[in-house]
Amino acid sequence: MTRTRFAPSPTGQLHIGGLRTALYAYIWAKKNHGQFLVRIEDTDKTREVEGARDALLDTLEMFGIHADESIRAGGDCGPYIQSERLPIYREYVGKLIEQGDAYYCFTTEEELEAHKKKAEEAGIMIPFRSPYRDITLAEAKAKIAAGEKYVIRMKIPKGEVITFTDGLKGKISVPSADIDDQVLLKTDGFPTYHLAMAVDDHLMKITHVLRGDEWLPSTPKHVLLYRMFGWEAPEFYHLSVILGSDRKKLSKRNGDTHVSQFLENGYLKEALLNYIALIGWNSKTTKEIFSLPELIEAFSLDGLQIANGIFDPEKLKWMNGKYIAAMPTNELVDRLSEYLKQYNPEFYENTFITHDADFNNAVVAEVQKRCETLADFPVLSECFYHEPEVDTALLLSEKMGITDLTQAKEALQFGLDVIKTFTSTPSRDALKDAMIPKIAEAGKKNGQILWPLRVALTGKEFSPGAFEMTEILGLEKAIARIEKVIAKLA
Ligand code: GLU
To answer: What is the tens place of the pLDDT at every residue in 322-361?
Structure first.
């Protein structure tokens, strides 16, 4: 049975790299009809951020990455939060002590500093070997009884080469002489990540560990821990890093990194998930748009890429635009409404909800194809919601053959007369069918009439056309806008 996990530390908001790791782990479990677990790794209390744990869990759920087992979902291998598993880690570290694979270490901060300094001066990594490595258990117990502070360290075997296979990077060999006697249990009684992770992945029956590349250097220690315990290690897949467009690791310096920033900037969760899935995984087809079920269907571990992937904000924007364009308009209206309420309450309250639903739907349908993000909506829809202050210079267009304002005024009057033949709001097609033949009859070009008309209705150089504007604004408002500009030109 395939069992994967995502093991975030509650130290802040979810990074898109973290979301991708969770996504791949989730997909791999689902693809194999297995289980996906979320385990909270909160053994470093100094780095914990209040509220981060719930925010992480909420974000995963929002993206449809549902845990089969977690602090919320429950499960047979709980607790799914490490701070509630302290007795378990103590029990297992006790076994290592008994076996002689771990030892009590009483080294002081000053001694450790001196070691660090020595290594720094030498300019090389000198793995730490404690002077307490070989004292007897009785000696150690006496020190503890005397109240001396201690940590428990792993006793890295001497003169060995630790070898393991990473599913992505292949066979990796590290001499044990290069590995520190890693702390397993800290002075505060908390395990380190290394001990907790190895014990938990075993007890939680994890078969595949998909995690960030930064954990690769620690993996020899983990492999050794599994061996010391006599357990079979899971398969490891250390995922490539996501780079910014400057080819440096994606960070605050070269772009947005937090999932929440993308949501705030108007990206749809489906599009973001789709895009990040493709950063480190090759579908081996030309297909680019994948829903979550389609990703599960198409995914394979051998499509994971070894080379670091580059995050291209333009590509994400393009993809987001595709998702927005393809969404049924009524769904988009709901999504926009949620989005505006949360991130642009001013527009939401003063503009969006002050208009009736039919009007909003019509506006959304009109600008949908041009919205690349939800944040584009207030800008692209402005001409529908607010009467423009028309800059008369915009009425002129050499290309359209309108070179002076008298001509522009005549064109507006011409258009207005046609519009006024309707007694109720015409559809865009009805207006077009009335307008185009009249323009031809008058021996004019379409642009000569329609350009100024559109500018009078929108105040913008680029906008929806005069027919669409009239249909959506309604007869009365359209007439009023045109008349106002004519008056301005008088
Ligand atoms: N808690 C670790 C982190 O925050 C998880 C590492 C792992 O998946 O083993 O990155």
So the answer is: 999 999 999 999 999 999 999 999 999 999 999 999 999 9
DSSP state of 35: E
Sheet of 208-212, strand order? 35-38, 3-6, 208-212, 235-239, 161-166, 170-175
Q: How many Cβ atoms sit within 10 Å of the Cβ of residue 336?
A: 25
Residue whose entry in the numeric block shows the structure tokens 């919205």 = 371
pTM across the whole model: 0.94
Q: Which residues have C-beta atoms less than 6 Å from ligand 1?
A: 7-9, 41, 197, 211-212, 215
For residues 355 and 385, what is the distance between their CA atoms, to the nearest angstrom?
8
Residue whose CB lies within 8 A of the most ligand 1 atoms, among 193, 201, 204, for a mutation test: 193
Q: Coil, strand or helix: which one is 335?
A: helix
Count the neighbouring beta carbons within 10 Å of the beta carbon of residue 352.
22
Distance CA 257, CA 18 (A): 10
* Max Cα-Cα span within the chain: 109
State the Cα–Cα distance between residues 368 and 483, nearest whole angstrom. 29
Structure tokens at 229: 């315990």
Helix 86-99 and helix 219-229: axis angle, to 10°?
70
The DSSP string of 409-468 is HHHHHHHHHHHTT-SSPPPHHHHHHHHHHHHHHTT--HHHHHHHHHHHHH--SS-S-HHH
Ligand 1, atom nearest to 214 Cα: 10
Q: Which of 429, 436, 430, 485 is nearest to 457 (CA)?
A: 485
DSSP character at residue 373: S
CA dihedral 481, 483, 487, 488 (to 10 degrees): 30
Closest CA to 474 of 416, 430, 427, 434: 427
> pLDDT tens digit string along 184-205?
999 999 999 999 999 999 999 9
Torsion of CA 82, 85, 88, 89, to 10 degrees: 40
Count of Cβ atoms closer than 10 Å to residue 247 Cβ: 9
Whether a cis peptide bond, with omega within 30° of 0, leads into 87 is no
What is the torsional sign of CA 458, 463, 469, 472?
negative
CA distances from 215 to 25, 110, 190, 237 (A): 16, 28, 20, 10
**Among residues 45, 158, 171, 252, which one is catalytic?**
252
Distance CA 70, CA 274 (A): 24
Q: How many CB atoms lie within 10 A of CB 173?
A: 9
Identify the bridge partners of residue 164 per DSSP, sorted by sequence position: 172
Q: What is the pLDDT of residues 24-42, one digit of tens each?
A: 999 999 999 999 999 999 9
